[in-house]
Design brief:
Elements lengths: L1 H8 L10 H7 L8 H22 L9 H14 L5 H13 L5 H20 L4
Length: 126
């Protein structure tokens, strides 16, 4: 019983934080200059997020829909250190809107912006 209580009160080490690779990748966005580079980091974050789900479930589960991605993206955005996430995402979104071939990228940008809106409007901050 004591071991269980110690594990519950022990702070998480950084490598135990869920989706840490995706969080680290999205934290790179402000240091990148071109919208294409920022988009590349966001796509890598998305890939790392989906891989983390598959790895955790040992290949038996995966994230398939935008609705399944939304709570994970909200978590990642709450954990990351993006100070101007809305501006960063709008900058990239302006870029992807000009290319009709970037449909999956447009969906990712929509989900990221909806996640930010949820955090801004619905999340309780105490």
């Amino acid at each position: 019983m004591l071991d269980e209580e110690e594990n519950l009160t022990k702070p998480l080490e950084i490598h135990q934080l869920p989706y840490i690779d995706a969080i680290n990748e999205i934290n790179k966005v402000p240091s990148l200059k071109a919208p294409r580079e920022k988009l590349g980091a966001l796509l890598m974050m998305h890939s790392l997020m989906k891989s983390a789900v598959v790895d955790f479930h040992k290949g038996k589960e995966e994230v398939c829909s935008m609705d399944e991605e939304l709570p994970i993206l909200i978590y990642i955005l709450l954990q990351c250190k993006l100070e101007n996430a809305a501006a960063e995402f709008n900058f990239v979104d302006d870029y992807v809107q000009f290319d009709p071939n970037l449909e999956s990228e447009k969906r990712l940008m929509t989900n990221l912006k909806v996640s930010l809106q949820y955090i801004a409007n619905e999340w309780e901050t105490n």
